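Task: sequence design from structure.
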């Protein structure tokens, strides 16, 4: 466990040394300041759209950092050949993967928390009404979503180049998020002998829409029931566990 945490700590230091994180914070501050400083000609209920834009920016910038850093972890170690002394210490390949994943988690948590605090600062400074329970649920579900994306990017990094990995992970997210209804109608309503295969495929694919509760926050709806949040949490933990198991399995068979 100590070796895993040391690897994770090294990954966090990489974030602090790079300028990407700070540039995104400055960009977010500039965009958020612009949107929340505009009156938009007194359009009715425009604050709802601004809150939606703010949450979208928080999610997008956090995903950029999470996916980008997760996709670089293993390839960067192989390219610089620093992986060889690490594995010779000895650090097992399982420990190496878990260490990189935990480090990526810290990076995603730090980035999302920073952006989210800035967002909440703008919200409350404008006197907007907000449910603290819903905001807390959004925070938890967003961290679970980022954890899943990090696990996907880490697994894809064993087979794809960094740029291809980043592109594929983003495409997977947006495709499943935007076209979930179409997939459900196509796969679950299919008929014939292949119905079982289609049904299994639908449930195996990641359902990122589970984590999006922006509409509830924007329109001040009731918070999610406790059992729903628990079910989504269990779903994401099991899915992440499966992805990490596949990553370790493939990494053990990879020739370095």
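Answer:
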């Amino acid at each position: 466990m100590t070796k895993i945490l040391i690897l994770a700590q090294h990954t966090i230091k990489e974030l602090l040394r790079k300028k990407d994180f700070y540039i995104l914070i400055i960009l977010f501050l500039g965009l958020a300041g612009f949107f929340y400083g505009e009156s938009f000609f007194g359009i009715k209920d425009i604050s709802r759209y601004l809150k939606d834009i703010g949450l979208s920016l928080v999610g997008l910038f956090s995903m950029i950092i999470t996916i980008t850093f997760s996709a670089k972890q293993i390839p960067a170690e192989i390219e610089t050949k620093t992986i060889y002394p690490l594995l010779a210490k000895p650090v097992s390949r399982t420990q190496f993967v878990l260490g990189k994943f935990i480090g990526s988690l810290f990076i995603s948590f730090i980035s999302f928390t920073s952006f989210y605090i800035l967002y909440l600062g703008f919200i409350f400074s404008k006197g907007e009404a907000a449910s603290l329970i819903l905001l807390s649920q959004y925070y938890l579900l967003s961290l679970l979503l980022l954890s899943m994306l990090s696990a996907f990017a880490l697994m894809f990094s064993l087979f794809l180049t960094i740029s291809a990995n980043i592109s594929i992970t983003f495409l997977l997210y947006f495709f499943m998020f935007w076209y979930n209804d179409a997939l459900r109608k196509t796969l679950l309503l299919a008929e014939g002998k292949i119905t079982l295969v289609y049904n299994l495929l639908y449930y195996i694919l990641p359902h990122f829409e589970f984590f999006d509760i922006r509409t509830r926050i924007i329109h001040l709806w009731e918070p999610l029931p406790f059992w729903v949040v628990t079910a989504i949490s269990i779903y994401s933990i099991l899915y992440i566990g499966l992805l990490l198991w596949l990553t370790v399995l493939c990494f053990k068979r990879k020739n370095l």
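Residues 39-44 have pLDDT under 50 and may be disordered.
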